[in-house]
Amino acid sequence: MAKEHVLNLNAQQKKTVLAAFLGWTLDAFDFFLLTFLLTDIATEFQTDVPAVSKALFLTLATRFIGAFFFGMLADKYGRKPILMLNIVSYSVIGALAAFSPNLGIFLALRALFGIAMGGEWGLGSSLAMESIPPSARGMVSGILQCGYPTGYLLAAVVYGLLYQQTIGGYTIGWRAMFLLSFVPALIVLFIRSHVPESPAFVEAQKTARPGLLETLQKHWGVALYAVVLMMFFNFFSHGTQDLYPTFLKKQHGFDPHTVSWITIVANIGAIVGGLAFGALSEKIGRVNAITLACLIALPSIPLWAYSTTPFMLAIGAFVMQVAVQGAWGVIPVHLNELSPGSVRATLPGFIYQAGNLAASYGGPYQAGIAERVGGSYGYALALFAGVVAVCIIVVIRFSPERRGQVMTVLG
């Protein structure tokens, strides 16, 4: 039923969903480019992978600032104009990393990139969820969250096709890869011309609304619970994705082409999972869909982390990301349904990114664990995936279920 509604979205609704999807896709593309380049950046700056992986930590740790800042602007001035500002910001800052003269400047730029990156998810998801029929939200939630693995897949394809290739006598290195971050700015032209403002936001301008602090005081319990939930969710996704290319290169010695195609297979699984579980959540509920996805992750761990051939690792990565992004595919709609309308551009994104902050040191921590046990990145990945999947299963069972509620920007 949900799928039928998505196919019957009007032209403006389809363009809104497309804009939100593309914004998150290219946001993720910019982020995941770094995960393929950690070893190369470490070599150039004469340091080790754990030191460079602090860029992952800083990006994740500062995202909550952007979620709060851009979300507040969007709740005041509208989802559409602030979404455009946000996309231009992360595009420009992402590209500036190409000119870093040393590791310190590079880390500072990635911290700024995290601020810009942090705003997009909340803005895009609130704009989309407020613009579509309630029965279409589950499927659209899956579509939106699939922007993340699609961005990862795109980064893998670009890495596999372009990295270390020679064009016109110039060999493409890690700096040239970051220049591709300028590409997302082109989405702004599409949003400006074809995407309308959220109908719920437009309607809400006719009525006085409570402020953020007043709303948080009233709903602090749900907000605090959701931050804890998102901490585990961010451990789940980043703990299974960010160091996987490094695991393939450093522990298995695979070349860029092999790393690229295994990562592509993993992200095809992520897209399948996001779409399937987003749609399934309309039938069995948000909480049950997330629980089922996490249960699937557990038996896939040995194949994903301890296989020895590229083919078997790819199968394991496919199943793992079906589970991880299957659970994540429910999150855009679940957080928007849990959030009061007057702060819907601020609160879901802020909750998401506050969870990111709590989980932000996961990458360096995983790398440190791996190095302490003789470079076994597989062990570090398996440990994180197993523990966090169980934690999500336990915590999600306490979540309110608000599937299908009417969304306004009041209250």
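(the above was protein one; protein two follows)
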Amino acid sequence: MPETVLKPRTKTQPKTERPKLYKVILVNDDFTPREFVVTVLKGEFKLSEDQAHRVMITAHTRGVCVVAVFTRDVAETKAARATDVGKAKGYPLLFTTEPEE
């Protein structure tokens, strides 16, 4: 009688890599009013009044401050929209993005 050899089935599951994250950074300038910066932070990044004020003060004292961390597309979109709000009002408000290490 022939021997039947059973081979176990192995399931291979592809490993999905988590998307790389990017920091949205507020760059300080000496011309944009503080209240306006707080308003933009609250509107675009959904920060509370207190959080927005702390981010604005940190950027003012240190020159830059990380506002939030998102996937690349979201970070670039939010940074561009927040910068555009400043430009529309005639302020040199600047938000940039960079990869998170």
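Reviewer note on protein two: The beta strands are 21-27, 64-71, 94-99.
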